Predict the structure.
Amino acid sequence: MKDFGPTVLRIFVGVIFVMHSYLALFVFTPAGYAGFIEKVARLPIPAVIAWFNIAAHGLGGIMMIVGLWTRAAAAVNAFIMIGALLTVKLAQGFFLKGVIVDAAAGRATFVGYEFELILFGALVALVLTGGGALAITRDQ
């Protein structure tokens, strides 16, 4: 039964990342997401980073859901979470104070880093344990 802990974790975390990829791709749009990265995170090559994050969240999320190279997919997304924490979220404080989504304008305001921190912890757990039971690849 202990192999099913990572299974449940990877499926739920994978769904979250697929949905975030969908949000960035179809609601905020890649251009809007790149604009956010440029203005808020103040990172170079924002379009490249936006597309990388969208692909990593979408493909990595699917890979986690089915258990295909779970450790690699989790590691890449953990790296992205570190970037989000360091460039945007830490300055906002720990507690999630609210989420305001303006789909028409293609933007959202998230205040607090607790959500990114728990996702980072879940991703690190998957890097350490692998995909668990029912994974396509049993990455030991």
